[in-house]
Amino acid sequence: MDKPAEILRSEPRAAEPAAMQRELRALFSSAPFLVVVDLVLVLSAYLAAWLIRMHVPLPMTQELLPQERWGVVDHQWWLLLGGQVFFLYIFGLYDDLRSLRYREVLGHVLPAAGGHVVLQTTFFYFTNAVFPRSVLLIFGLLEAGLLGGWRCVVKRTLETQRHRVVVVGEDLHSAAELAREMVSNPWMGYEVVGIFADGEASTGEPPEFPLLGSLADAPRFLRELGVEEVIFASQQNWKDRILDALSGVQLKHPLRIAIYPSIWDITIGRLRHVTVHDTPLIEVRRTPNEPIARLVKRTFDISVSLLGLVLLAPLFALIAAAVRFTSPGPVFYRQERVGLGGNVFRLIKFRTMVPDAEAAEEERLACPGDPRITPIGAVLRRFRLDELPQLVNVLRGDMSFVGPRPERPGFVARYSRELPGYQERHKVKPGMTGLAQVRGFYDTSPEKKLKYDLAYIYNYRFTLDLLILLETLKVILTRRGS
């Protein structure tokens, strides 16, 4: 019997989400909608704080606030509204909340509201502006309560609705691997209806995912199955292997690479288009090394790294003292890394491990609970403070603020053998942070990190650098990936 037909007969309507539920989920996942509600809530909290202070006797206050004070105060609406959205963004409250527990959601709301109140207080203090401190305190409490309750409603709405999806792949193995990862993270809300794939005879059918048919069968059944999303699972092809072979050549001898695109290539391509007579081609090579982009990026790196080294000098001194007096050994740790063009440079960090941590063993990554990490080193790693000396690497031109993270020569040699396209990372300077660091996790596989790195390189724009730097701050504050 046809397997899609079996699924339809066993669950004729229950599996298909109602249109209203889909629209509600889409609405609660929309950042503009969340921003609008947040602004309404912050205005409500602000006005309520004033009304409470004017009409409700409170402990530790001498008298009610005169209503005339409202007209005397310069309310700084731009700071009230813009500051709140900024802190909510920085603390990850416009991200998908389904991966967080409710106490973690509230744990992000509280510092976001607290940071907002501190920002306002600091502004009024340094500008000598008149503003009742009691109103700010009440406002902070109301803001935290309203935003915390609202975000819990958003989380509850999103996690109670499932997103029906099918995985389509050229072979069953790659499709099943992707589907398996989706269901192993139930917080994402995916319900994998099944797989459409060719080549099933050689690998067998994974029991946890129904094989709905071949690739040719997919268009016939998607509507009947109530599917909301189709995800293609790609496997390595001849283009990947050729690009990998050309990577080493391009490091020393730049080449322009273009493809004669299929319809599929055109629909997903956002890269530069060129022509040969009347034949459309897509130019693959687009990197931050284009002259104007390189000038802008390097100017930013020099100016910000210089400013950072000056402003952070007191922090550098405190960290150096903490490292020096809590563990024997040098303050700084220098390690060989591979950078632009495959050239090796020495990366500088604050030392976070015991001296000679790798003297008697081969290169290996640190892991949670690693006995080689010192107590102060664990704190530095938690807040990424051990990376700050790399400002010197940025200033010298070994690195940039944003780019693929530099790896050690041993890892580069291994990954270059195992991962097609790995040498493409060395077309640009490595970075203190990168797209893989803000979208992935510490234990994300090298293969997935490579895909993030290549996405950054071939979709580069300076505004992307600024966004990644902002996302990095958010990752540090929310402890995501730590």
Give the helix/strand class.
alpha/beta
Which percent range describes the beta-strand content?
5-15%
User: Kindly, what is the distance between the CA atoms of the first and last residues, rounded to a whole number of angstroms?
Assistant: 48 Å
The number of helices is 20
Structure described in brief:
This protein is 52% helix and 11% strand. It contains 20 helices and 11 strands.
Notes on the protein architecture:
The relative contact order is 0.08. Helix content is 52%, strand content 11%. It is globular, with a radius of gyration of 27 Å. The chain contains 20 helices and eleven strands. It is of the alpha/beta class. The protein has a four-stranded parallel sheet, with helices on one face. The chain has four domains: 24-159, no CATH class; 162-233, Rossmann fold (3-Layer(aba) Sandwich), CATH 3.40.50; 239-283, no CATH class; 291-478, no CATH class.
Task: Lay out the secondary structure.
Layout: H1 3-10, H2 19-28, H3 31-55, H4 69-72, H5 77-90, H6 102-126, H7 133-159, E1 163-169, H8 172-183, E2 190-197, H9 200-203, E3 211-213, H10 218-221, E4 229-233, H11 238-252, E5 258-259, H12 263-268, E6 273-276, E7 279-283, H13 291-311, H14 313-326, E8 332-338, E9 344-350, H15 375-382, H16 390-396, E10 400-402, H17 409-418, E11 431-433, H18 435-439, H19 446-458, H20 462-478
Parallel strand pairs: 1-2, 1-4, 2-3, 10-11
Antiparallel strand pairs: 5-7, 6-7, 8-9
Helix pairs in contact: 3-5, 3-7, 5-6, 6-7, 13-16, 14-15
